[in-house]
Every structure is written in structure tokens, then in C-alpha cells.
Design brief:
The complex is a heterodimer of chains A (205) and B (252).
Chain A lengths: L1 E5 L7 H9 L3 E5 L2 H5 L3 E4 L5 H10 L2 H10 L4 E4 L1 H4 L2 E4 L5 E2 L4 E7 L1 H5 L6 E6 L1 E2 L14 E6 L1 E4 L5 E6 L3 E8 L2 E4 L7 H13 L3
Chain B lengths: L4 E9 L2 E6 L2 E7 L1 H10 L5 E5 L2 H4 L5 H8 L6 E4 L5 H8 L5 E4 L1 H5 L3 H9 L4 E10 L2 E6 L4 E6 H10 L4 E6 L11 H8 L6 E4 L5 H10 L3 E6 L1 H4 L5 H10 L7
Parallel strand pairs in B: 1-4, 1-12, 4-5, 5-6, 6-7, 7-10, 10-11, 11-12
Antiparallel strand pairs in B: 1-2, 2-3, 7-8, 8-9
Helix pairs in contact in B: 1-3, 9-11
The chains are: A alpha/beta (205), B alpha/beta (252).
């Protein structure tokens, strides 16, 4: 199985590629629209700021290629900022358009901040599974995953497959058909994270 | 619920793990890759790698060792030692680091923290501070804990957090290596001053010391130790079981 990891200059792809290889996938980096088009499985990673990331994806023509990949029914997994980019818009420092592949918007973790919790939400938190997802083939309710983020997606419950508790429900996993998102980092979440990546590799449309 | 993190710290020199007692008297312990894998498998929540020679002798970080670890261990990796500029951030982030710890580099050039936070995000920038009591105040020490900078520690930490440091590792020189427990007073002072994750370092000798720091200073998010793990004095699965039994939320 071959996985293409979208490289748009924001974030370290080294660990992600290593973890994909650890679950038996052939990982390669896709840094232009053509390299995305030839991929079966696509991972959209990302750290940093939403506006900058969305801008780089659009300017390189890769935003369109990612949308075409999803529209063709091929599996797509957004991780952390990459998951947030799947939504219609984000309110991180202003209002910015996302890829619009999953309905919803990205907003600050204000419920956590209001309770005096530290922002970013950083560390290992447990997953509360809300509905079945092919990604949870090797995951059980209560398993721990590693988060680092200050914003999260607010979207209709039908797309939310798992949440975590941090002063309220943090959207941890979403799914809309062949499009998946993880707010946490599966590539940094030990055996649980590798299980999620393995399940993504095994997902058949 | 977010868990408290247990972080083994691997001081690396010449491709091997070492641990200094009060930053002196270094002895070889094990291979970093083997040790990192062992810790990852036994439930460590994160690993910290310091190139301990870098700040003293300006040696380059052992990025090959880091890459080897990152290809085998899938938990967060923080790298420090000899981080003096954005080039150093870039060098380690490309080889598997998730967070980069700055210490002497931030003291030499206070614009490093804000510049790195702008480029890589606050979550990537960890401020590591070596602190010692001098004349009734907490004082920042540089160069691996050898040089008194004259700066008051709490105001230095606050300033760096305001400038974008997303996490603070507090190394108490006063308690480091003596195994009588973490520096609760120093940690309370830091936790009262900032609202980013705080990592306790220096002084762990027994599992009770970990329970004690999490209970006594609720603002402490993680506890870091080296020798007690390297020499097998505390096994991480036993430590986590004990923490859980004492009502501390940990990942098991």
C-alpha cells in the first residue's frame, strides 16, 4: 500500500513517513498536484497557523488536487492542522476559508480557557468513541492519544466519531465518507496511533 | 481527561546516553536508540534528548541518532542542547524532533524564542531553564548550570512565555542529582506565574517523589527524570501504577 503525504512546507513529515512505514505502507511525499493525483491514499498533515497553511495549499494548486482526490472517493486523512483544513472555515486570527470537505468551522478551545485550563491542549488524552469508524478497527474506547492544539472543529454530530474531554468535548475524530480527520497526532500516539494509521491503510471505499 | 506525563531524559554525548550528578561526574549508561525503544515500550509519555556537550563545547547535535530514534519510537520527542538559532531548530525538526528546547541559546539571544514561535508555532518551542537559589532569589544559570547569569528566574520564564514559549522545563540545580524529591517551592513559583505546561525536572529518587510533585503542585503537567530510569531504580509501568493508585490520572 502506498501513502502520499502532502508536503506544503508546514511541518515535519519525517515522523509521519516513519510511522506509515512502521505499519507496512510505502510512504512518499507529494509536493505538487501531479504527485497527489497519482496517490491512492492521501494524508494531509500540518502544524502552524491555519491562514498560512491554507494559503500555501491554494497557491501551489494542491488544494484543488486534494479536493479532487476526495471527490473521487479515495481515502484522505487530515491530521491536526490538516484535519482543521478539511472544514469550511477557521476563526484562527480572523476568518479564513478551508477546503470545505467536512461541514463545520474551526474555533478556539474557549470552553477550556474559560475553566482556567492551559492552552494549548497538550498531552495524552483518552478517546470517547461516539460512533463507529473504520479508523477504530484497532482502537477501543478510552485509549490514549497525543494532542497539541489550541483550536478545534465544531461540526454537526453526525460527522464526529470521537471526542476527548478537556473542559468540554474536544472534537478528536471526524469522518465524512472517505474523508477522515484526527485532531491528535496518530504518528506520535504509540501503539494506538499506529493502529489508526494501519486501519486507514486498510480502509476500502 | 488530560493525563500527567512521565518523561525520561536522555543526555547524549558521542552517540551514547550519559547522566551527570549535579551536572558533573558523567557515566555512560546505554545506547540512546535501545533505551528510547525500551522507554517507549514501557509507557513513557515523551522523551527528551539533550546534547549535553553542545552548550559547553558547541558540538553539533547527534541528528543521526535522533533520526534513528524517530524511525522506531512513536511518541513525542523533544530535543535540546546547542540550539542557538533557527537553523538549529530546522536541523532537528527535519530529523524527527517534535519540540525543540532552548536554554543558553535563548539567554544569549532573547529574540530566538519569539522568532522560533512565529516560524514553528508556540507548541514547538520549549523553554528549558536551569535554576538555583542565590541570595534568596531564583537565579537563571547558563552553560549547563555552571554560569550565574544574574537574571531572576520567574521574570525570565514569564518573559519567554509571553514571547511564545509553549512549555517550560524547570531544572532545579539545587535538587538535581540528590534524589530527595522535586523542587516543590520552585515549581509552585513557576506554575503561579505562567499558564503553559510546566515540566518538573531535578530531584526524583523514588516513585513517591512523582506522586508528591503532582499532588503538591497541581500546575505541574509532567515530570522528567534520567538516572532513576536509566539505572532501573524505577520501572515506568510500576511508577504509573503507583501514580494511578494515588489518584493521579496517567496513561496506562
Amino acid at each position: 500500500m502506498e501513502i502520499a503525504i502532502v508536503d506544503y512546507g508546514v511541518g515535519n513529515l519525517f515522523s509521519l513517513a516513519c510511522s506509515a512505514r512502521a505499519v507496512g505502507a510505502e510512504a512518499r511525499v507529494a509536493s505538487d498536484p501531479e504527485e497527489i493525483k497519482s496517490a491512492d491514499l492521501l494524508i494531509l498533515p500540518g502544524v502552524g497557523a491555519f491562514e498560512d497553511a491554507a494559503g500555501k495549499l491554494a497557491a501551489s494548486g494542491m488544494a484543488r488536487a486534494v479536493k479532487e482526490h476526495a471527490a473521487a472517493g479515495k481515502p484522505l486523512l487530515g491530521i491536526c492542522l490538516g484535519m482543521q483544513l478539511l472544514f469550511e472555515k477557521s476563526f484562527e486570527y480572523g476568518e479564513h476559508a478551508g477546503l470545505g470537505l467536512v461541514p463545520g468551522a474551526v474555533r478556539p478551545l474557549s470552553f477550556a480557557a474559560e475553566k482556567g485550563l492551559k492552552i494549548p491542549h497538550m498531552g495524552w488524552n483518552s478517546l470517547e468513541i461516539k460512533q463507529k469508524s473504520p479508523l477504530f478497527k484497532y482502537v477501543k474506547n478510552g485509549d490514549f492519544v497525543y494532542f497539541v492544539h489550541s483550536y478545534h472543529a465544531e461540526c454537526p454530530p453526525e460527522y464526529v466519531t470521537a471526542v476527548s474531554d478537556y473542559g468540554g468535548e474536544v472534537t478528536a475524530c471526524v469522518r465524512r465518507e472517505n474523508v477522515f480527520g484526527c485532531q491528535f497526532h496518530p504518528e506520535k500516539s504509540g501503539g494506538t496511533g499506529l493502529g489508526i494509521l494501519r486501519a486507514f491503510c486498510e480502509f476500502e471505499v | 481527561m488530560l493525563t500527567k506525563r512521565i518523561i525520561p531524559c536522555l543526555d547524549v554525548r558521542n552517540g551514547r546516553v550519559v547522566k551527570g550528578i549535579n551536572f558533573e561526574g558523567v557515566t555512560d549508561v546505554d545506547s540512546p536508540v535501545a533505551l528510547a525503544k525500551k522507554y517507549g515500550d514501557s509507557g513513557a509519555d515523551e522523551l527528551v534528548f539533550y546534547d549535553i556537550t553542545a552548550s559547553a563545547e558547541g558540538r553539533a547535535l547527534f541528528t543521526d541518532v535522533l533520526a534513528e530514534v524517530a524511525s522506531q519510537v512513536f511518541i513525542p520527542l523533544t530535543v535540546g542542547g546547542g540550539i542557538n538559532g533557527l537553523d538549529d531548530f530546522d536541523r532537528v525538526l527535519k530529523r524527527g524532533a517534535d519540540k525543540v528546547s532552548v536554554n543558553s541559546g535563548a539567554i544569549k539571544d532573547p529574540s530566538l524564542v519569539p522568532a522560533a514561535a512565529r516560524k514553528y508555532g508556540d507548541q514547538c518551542v520549549v523553554l528549558s531553564v536551569d535554576v538555583k537559589r542565590v541570595g534568596g532569589e531564583f537565579r537563571v544559570f547558563a552553560k549547563g548550570g555552571r554560569v550565574d547569569t544574574g537574571m531572576e528566574a520567574i521574570s525570565w520564564i514569564k518573559r519567554c512565555v509571553e514571547n511564545g514559549a509553549g512549555e517550560v522545563v524547570v531544572n532545579s540545580i539545587d535538587t538535581d542529582g540528590v534524589k530527595r524529591g522535586f523542587d516543590l517551592e520552585m515549581l509552585s513559583a513557576v506554575c503561579g506565574a505562567v499558564n503553559v505546561p510546566v515540566v518538573a525536572s531535578g530531584g526524583a529518587g523514588t516513585a513517591e517523589h512523582f506522586t508528591q510533585v503532582f499532588k503538591a503542585v497541581p500546575g505541574v503537567d509532567a515530570a522528567l527524570a534520567a538516572s532513576v530510569f536509566h539505572y532501573g531504580e524505577i520501572a515506568i509501568p510500576d511508577l504509573k501504577a503507583e501514580l494511578k493508585q494515588n489518584g493521579i490520572n496517567v496513561r496506562i
